[in-house]
Design brief:
This protein is 39% helix and 19% strand. It contains 14 helices and 16 strands. The strands form four sheets. A six-stranded mixed β-sheet has the order 10-7-4-5-6-16, sandwiched between helices. A five-stranded mixed β-sheet has the order 13-12-11-14-15, with helices on both faces. A three-stranded antiparallel β-sheet has the order 1-3-2. By secondary structure, it is of the alpha/beta class. The mean pLDDT is 86. The chain is globular and about 65 Å long.
Amino acid sequence: MTASKRVLRNVSVGLVLDLLRNEGPTSQASIARRTGLSPATVNNVIQLLRKEGVADFEWINGREALVTLISTKGVMMSVMVSADFIHGAVFNFEKQERHDLFVSPDDLLDKQHNPESLAAFIEKLAGLADVTVSALAGLSVSIQAPIDKKTGMIAVWSAGRMPGWKDVAIREQLESLLNINVHVDNDANLATYAEWTWGAGRGVDCFLYLSCSRQIGSGLIIDGKIHNGSNGMAGELGHLVIDKAGPVCFCGSRGCLTTLISERAILRVLDGSENVKSSLPEVIASANSGDAACQRVLYEAGHNIGQALANTAKIVAPGIIAIGGELGNAWQYIKDSLRVATEENNLDNVSPGIQFVQGMLMKDAVLLGGIASLLSQAGQGISDLPEWMTHDAAERSTFQPLI
């Protein structure tokens, strides 16, 4: 094969893979129409992908079959690192098994939350899944903090929340400790990628995702790629100033969205009521039971979210905006006030047609986003998320200290 033919084949394969990742199962005729490739070229690409175990047919009648991406090879690990816990999962595509491990900082080796303790966690999780770290086909690590792409470190203004990671070039340090390539990204970016790949934003050219839990994170997909900006910190909606007279945020500003709708902020508002709560899930459960105070704070949270999203949407104009994280589970309480806020900001006239939806992947979004990124980097993908990959993390996690 000549060099020019190899280039053309690689381009054709890339076009077909991108379409199948974005659109899900698709007929060969539709692939040809959407990519502009000839039917014969599409057929050759599909046969090549089938031979490599990346794609297969799913017959829908005697004459037409849908082409779907599959992954039947390798073992991949996705790990989420926050200030409060580390949660990781191993996905064995050959055995169709998922193994989870969850620990708090007090359970970590020497009680230290740093690259060394994370490396020990990864070794432990690999052992639980009966694999070695060196045998992994991919390792993704998400950090619950903004990462400066130029330095590979947590942004200076956020590093105080995770002191063991301050001034650490995360990817380089982990690769040195584990002797394996590591994909590192912000947790919100990976959650966004998962929702775009398999969830609420599937098939949308421009997709905005907001995760609201203990912290506030967001990510933006433009033309099928995470938009990082010049330094990797694009899309920090949690630090949009909503109330200039509001509480001081850890970023140094006042009245950031984080100070108004994070778990801590919502619990702080409820301190003045007679029904003090200890967690955001408890607030939502009480609202479901008719607690008027909890319903009120959730409604107000939705309005604050709407203020932030209205301003952002006027600039970005995404097709879909999804709300995930713990607060996504309160969708029935936040959706109306969210819409009220966008109407107050005249969003429908400036950028009509934007859909606001509830996230679909919730707690699994970050870990699955890591796997989606690894599959994409490996030239693979999964058109439809199989059930074995989506079991509730709390039911499948192994809770034990690293000793």
